[in-house]
Write a structure and sequence with these properties.
Blueprint: H1 4-21, E1 27-32, H2 35-40, H3 42-55, E2 61-66, E3 78-81, E4 88-90, H4 95-107, H5 117-121
Parallel strand pairs: 1-2
Antiparallel strand pairs: 1-3, 3-4
Helix pairs in contact: 3-4
Length: 122
Amino acid sequence: MKSLEELKKIREASLDKVTLRNKKGGTRIVVGMATCGISAGARPVLMALLEETKKRNLENVTVTQTGCIGICDLEPIVEVFSPDREKVTYVNMTEDKARKIILEHIVNGNVVTDYTIGTIRG
């Protein structure tokens, strides 16, 4: 950091990211990125979700990461939080499944029940 102006720019960029994460009314997609998730392949899943949302210009969708979700044997795990809907937990995710989630669930509004925790544990 060389100047106060540079510090102000860093602060503004950080505040923009926080504001993005806290969008009200939008859909939030959360990927479990603890050690268990990463070792099971969560990083490529996260990247596929980010690429698909960008490719489709989904401005009201935020993709974030979290730590351990608590069911390590079902990693990679993706949770979708949509306004006025129940949380949906997708398990054993892959890049292809992530792309399908964006198209079917996020764009078309249809939960992909084959990938949900209820189908796996039910």
